[in-house]
Amino acid sequence: MFHRALHGFIEVVCGSMFSGKTEELLRRVRRAQIARQKVQVFKPAIDIRYSQDHVQSHDSNRVASRPVQSAREILDLVDDNTRVVGIDEAQFFDDAVVDVAQKLAYRGMRVIVAGLDMDFKGQPFGPMPKLLAVAETVTKLSAVCVVCGNPASRTQKVVGGDERIAVGAKEMYEARCRFCHEPDVIDRTSPSESLPAQAQ
Ligand code: ADP
Ligand code: MG
Ligand code: ZN
Minimal CA–CA distance to 102: which of 118, 113, 92? Predict the structure, then answer.
């Protein structure tokens, strides 16, 4: 007997900003495409940093993706013959994305979820802890700390306010290690700007 569901599983790719999550998602997607598997990629509509209809890494690699307002939409949009479902920037979805990923995996699909594990304060981000818990595999990537050069696990906010969700790239955030990271926003545009001791 053929148990299609046995082939479904969830892979999570997490880490700080600039750690290469999107690059890794795209790498896995490309390999699936080379294997002639039908792939569909989704991202939250909030992430319009580079493009409405592509997932793009900071290195400008890109793949077609569908922006969705809510994770639930993904369930209706995934075709039956799709083998691999990619979800980028999963931290911006609510907890429903966990249920969506589980359902797709039970439908026999390989679900690759990429997202920030921590927000800029160093706190677990949205649904990511739950996704990490239910995934079959977890890949935690690190960036390079821009202050000291060690592996960076955290995202430093360097401009703007205290809001958790402010989509931006290089001009707003940088990668930092545990010791160089400051949970409070370092506003470089204000005169009271300060950097960690190591940087001075
Ligand atoms: P993520 O999706 O995790 O934010 P991307 O896959 O979009 O990351 O981009 C990763 C790329 O960002 C790296 O390959 C590198 O070219 C670039 N990059 C810029 N700043 C850094 C940094 N501080 N550490 C590592 N990579 C960086
Ligand atoms: Mg990314
Ligand atoms: Zn550091």
Answer: 113
- Rounded to 10 degrees, the C-alpha dihedral 76/50/154/115 comes to 10
Confidence of residue 186 (pLDDT cuts 50, 70, 90): confident
92 belongs to a structural domain: yes
140 lines ligand 1 (CB under 6 A): no
Q: Where are the alpha helices (H) located in 69-109, listed in sequence order?
A: 72-77, 96-106
Q: How many domains does the chain have?
A: 1
Domain membership flag for residue 122:
yes
Mean pLDDT estimate for the chain = 87
Q: Is the pTM of this model over 0.85?
A: yes
- Residue 81, domain extent: 9-141
- Evaluate whether residue 22 is within a structural domain: yes
From the CA of 57, give the closest atom in ligand 1.
7
Q: Please work out whether the CB of residue 17 comes within 6 Å of at least one atom of ligand 1.
A: yes
